[in-house]
Design brief:
globular, 7 strands, single chain, 18% strand, alpha/beta, Rossmann fold
Length: 215
């Protein structure tokens, strides 16, 4: 007898919760107009994660992201670059939608179109992250913020960390996406990144830390 009654109570609650989320999203969008372009791009990044990326890179000059997809995160960094005028954003991706649940297709044109406002700050590096390290070395000896959002298997995340940790230094920020559900991401954070971290924070699905020592 309690089933239908509980169900009838829960439906209005779920509806109210949905309305609250919509109102919060609306408020987030109108109070962060500098991220309008990023917010307009379909992505697995939440609005809060995009705001966090923008805030985290405020003091960074050289930013590198592994996994650019169609540009939502690059636009967060680009918005910060427009404000300061002194950032270089290295976007590393195959732009073939590898390791994504949606399947493979060429996303290069979408990425270019979505990030065109910030193209003067962005250097795309097309290829698998572990195979383009020498190209990155030719561009910069150090990275101030590294955003890892590529292959989320343990082997993939570990390979990215091992390939790019040499670019990091004390004070560099490392950010891992899909920390909330991907056990491989959590393992690399706990085993490889955390021993070098002096401070860290997280959202449900994104983790970041500031390095105290060089990995």
């Amino acid at each position: 007898m309690h089933g239908p009654l509980v169900s009838s109570i829960m439906k209005p609650r779920r509806a109210l919760s949905g309305l609250k989320r919509q109102a919060l999203d609306f408020w987030t969008r109108i109070t962060n107009t500098h991220l309008r372009q990023s917010f307009s791009i379909e992505s697995h990044l939440t609005l809060r994660e995009r705001i966090a990326l923008y805030d985290l890179c405020s003091q960074s000059t050289v930013i590198a992201e592994i996994g650019s997809y169609i540009g939502a995160s690059a636009c967060c960094f680009g918005a910060a670059a427009l404000r300061t005028g002194n950032k270089r954003i290295l976007c590393i991706d195959t732009w073939n939608n590898d390791a994504m649940s949606e399947g493979n297709w060429d996303t290069w044109t979408q990425f270019q179109n979505n990030t065109s406002l910030y193209s003067s700050f962005i250097t795309p590096v097309r290829g698998f992250s572990t195979q383009v390290v020498e190209k990155i070395q030719a561009i910069t000896p150090a990275i101030d913020l590294l955003f890892i959002d590529g292959d989320h298997s343990y082997e993939g995340v570990k390979a990215d960390w091992d390939a790019y940790k040499a670019f990091l230094k004390p004070g560099s920020i490392v950010v891992f996406h899909d920390y909330g559900w991907a056990e491989g991401v959590k393992r690399v954070v706990n085993e490889d990144a955390m021993p070098h971290i002096k401070s860290h924070g997280n959202l449900p699905n994104m983790w970041w830390g500031v390095l105290a020592t060089k990995p």
